[in-house]
Amino acid sequence: MAQWHLTKPVKSLIRKLGIWSWLLDERCQMKTLHFGIIGCGMMGREFASAAARWFHLPDMSVRPEIVAICRRTISAEKISWFKDNIPTLRQVTSDYRELLDNRDVEAVYIAVPHNLHQEFYCAAIEAGKHLMGEKPFGIDKKANDAIMARIRKHPDCLVRCSSQFMFFPAVQRIGQMIEADAFGTIIEVNVGFLHGSDLNPAKPISWKRMVEYNGEYGCMGDLGPHVCSVPFRAGWIPVNVRAVLSNIMPKRPNLRGEMVPCETWDNATLLCEAKDSNSGDVFPFTLRTHRVSPGQRNNWYIEVLGTKACARFSTKDANTLETLDYNGREQAWQKIEIGHEVTFKSITPGIFQFGVSDAILQMCAAFLYELDKGRPFTKFSGCITPEETTLWHRLLTAALKSHKSGTTVALGRVEY
Fold it and tell me: What one-character DSSP code corresponds to residue 383?
């Protein structure tokens, strides 16, 4: 990693001006990891924004610096945001291979449509770049298998998948309960991601509604990885699945207003039996990924029911965790106001509220922390691993088969 430091003349000027005294603190002489961003859409901008806020995390020993971006179509309007807001930017290209050939780029954040994951991710790994990539890590299981094969050939590259919801403070608290075996025997787990974004039939079709770009998984490929993140990290692995998939809006207008086929699944409800990798217990496990969900906007939720304790959380009430401790007597749910109790220390006091942009910043911190230190410091403080992506590809592939056949499909033995 490149080292960031202040020259003596700059330090002298800062002292004379009496500004930014924190820059002179030796704790802030942190290592720098030079990043390239491939894909300049919503998540590319979110990653860039997180990098710009890095001084929000005072205890980090490494920071990201964005030096290159790639967008397939160089649009002045789209690119200007990055140029105007990233003073360290030195390369703008429409060819991702040019970015990967840039020796100054040490790591990449890739946020492109699912059909490009295999090509772009494999090329980045082959070029020796550390990679944080968007889910689902391949348009299908075959693509994911190819990415995994490339990862095995390059063990020196840190490769992780993006999903910010694990880093909400309430979810981290649930992770602590799982590690402490606070739930006892698991009775049932319910997780889901519910959108109302496609409830409007007049909403124009996008690449996420086209099988050739999004894949046959439909809403499962886009929302399912977020839903699987915590249960899979806990070691709660589906052994079978019965899936019901719905294409509620089979046609949508294109940008010219013409009605065109919309062939991806809008909603998916999966009922599984899951096995606890630690205890061997089997329990019901439901997953819901809905893009046509009345009354919802962006609701990610999890509910864990156990014999000793229960917990539930929803981003609808993002700063509140509900828990129930059972001691053989009365049962009562309690609400805990979690606030800004983050995994990676922030300058924001704990009494304040936490939001999605904070979760993305924490996720990025988790990636750089693991790269710098070699491993996460707790089970739930690290980003999604490539091995965990293979598990959801197994599940989603079986879900497609289950819906088509109208039967429960076994996933087979999983080594995890």
Answer: P
Reply yes or no: is the peptide bond before residue 204 cis, omega within 30 of 0: no
DSSP 135-195: TTSSSSHHHHHHHHHHHHH-TTS-EEE---GGGSHHHHHHHHHHHTTTT-SEEEEEEEEEE
Residue 64: strand pairing partners: 33
Tell me the two tokens of residue 289: 């990924």
The whole-model pTM stands at 0.90
The model's pLDDT over 316-334, given as tens digits with 9 standing for 90+, comes to 999 999 999 998 888 999 9
- In single-letter form, the type of residue at position 95 comes to D
Q: What is the pLDDT of residues 241-262, one digit of tens each?
A: 999 999 999 999 999 999 999 9
* DSSP 3-state percent helix, strand, coil across the chain (nearest 5): 35, 25, 40
Phi/psi class of residue 218: alpha, beta or left (left: φ > 0; alpha: ψ in -120 to 50)?
left
The angle subtended at Cα 35 by Cα 167 and Cα 126, nearest 5°, is: 100
| CATH numbers and ranges of domains, the chain | 2-161 (3.40.50.720), 168-342+386-410 (3.30.360.10)
The strand ranges marked E within 141-233 are 159-161, 186-195
